[in-house]
Amino acid sequence: MDALYGLFIAPFADFGFMQRALFGSLMLSLGACPIGVFLMLRRMSLSGDAMAHAILPGAAAGFLFYGLEILPMTIGGLIAGIIVALGAGAVSRFTIQREDASMAAFYLISLAIGVLMVSIRGSSVDLMHVLFGTVLALNNEALTLIGGIVALTLVSLAIFWRALVAECLDPLFLRSVSRMGSPVHFIFLGLVVLNLVGGFQALGTLLSVGLMMLPAAAARFWTVRVEPMCMLAVLIGFASCIAGLLLSYHASLPSGPAIILSAGVVYFASILFGTRGILRARIIHHRHRTA
Amino acid sequence: MTQTCLTFRDLTLGYNSHPAIHHLDGTIRKGSLTAVVGANGSGKSTLMKGIVGVLKPMAGEVVRAPGVRAAYLPQQSELDRSFPARVVDLVSLGLWPKRGMLGRYTSEDRAAVSQALMAVGLGGFEKRPIDTLSGGQLQRTLFARVLLQDADLILLDEPFNAVDAKTVGDLIALIKRWHGEERTIMVVVHDLELVRQNFPETLLLARQPIAWGETRETLKPENLLRARRFHEAWEENAPWCEPDGHAHDHAHGHDHHGHDHDHHHDVGPRAA
User: How many Å lie between the alpha carbon of B131 and the closest alpha carbon of chain A?
Assistant: First the structure.
């Protein structure tokens, strides 16, 4: 019993920083995982990755002027992310170019500016900070920020749920009955940026997208409806955060990659064992019904 | 007394400054059932898009009578069949005009969804994932959604494609039921026999209306021949169509046999 306590409970019970890390990352999963599900369903899985890179110049600008402070870097990242999201979204909505191409163009330009700015002042150690985050050093400011982002995300999802589903499922139909199509797309892109910015405190720009996409990708193997898929993604996100933090604590590993790799394990398990996964399809299909 | 549902005023619709519908004038009567026929590229789908409003006119306008709500079944749906949704989720989108983005679905709404599915012969399909439906079943599902939209103006763009004979019969029966309910219906169809048997009025298009009116008159051999001579391709160097008073001569309703365009003989069908 004591061994179990020592393994699973003690790290969180005994250390304030672990409690904060747990609290912060769980909140993050609550908002980011449903967003990830919709990114995946809209075939924009890699856009999350692109957006995470696009945030860099804003964060770097904040870093350049104020040093390693959370608020300026977050606001900078938010501005850069929104410029790229709106720019790429607008190009794809109003010209012939598809979103994957416009997103690639915008994020590459943004990333180049970001690397340039970091190199002007910072050493590579600073860059590592920006890229890989500091989940074990979340302060109250950062936790409040994440809380706000999560609340805004959940409220927006609740309000725009039906429009978002319609926009993914049958965009032309939505255009024929309502003008919500374009607004809801941009609101969604805004939420993607918000959650990535929230995540980059804890996990860094490169890994925050992992907490968004991996649970979503794993959940896809278990259900054929959107609502349960979002729920499941959140639960997988929770489990990954807990497992990752414990792994990081006991094995002295960096916390961000530990969390993402835990989600990766769930993803591979889902590919194999999910109700729509490989093994199940192989085994069950020996039998079929009469009609 | 007949009421007007739709009025086209000098309507030109198209892509990249090339017209697909050229200076269309006329009206669609409330409660009418019109077949829209014509060769590939003659502007049928474009006209539908223009009426729904997903394509903005290059010139002129489509005027809907006040309060007319449209339901539109496109030829090429942008439906994402891999999206994790059930038949009931897809059909429920048809409740949008009634419930909007936020309104709760009531038990009454759910009953209406089931009834709509029954009406298209898909009773009991509620829980099926949409990626397991056959082409014809999907088409009927989309009909159920149109049914649920409860619209005054119903626009169906080639609804009978890839649909078996029995299903065509079911869908025609549904269209006739709507016709009986005084709804205004326009259907793009290729099968002229089907049109002769089931549609009182026909619009024969070849970028411009070749003939428009009672089906038997419209589908006369000479009209069909003129429609067939229609030149589908754009001509990159077609002269610009100058405004010359088209806006003034739109009061002649049905049965205007193609506009004469002195300056446009090289693109449009030649008027006899």
Answer: 10
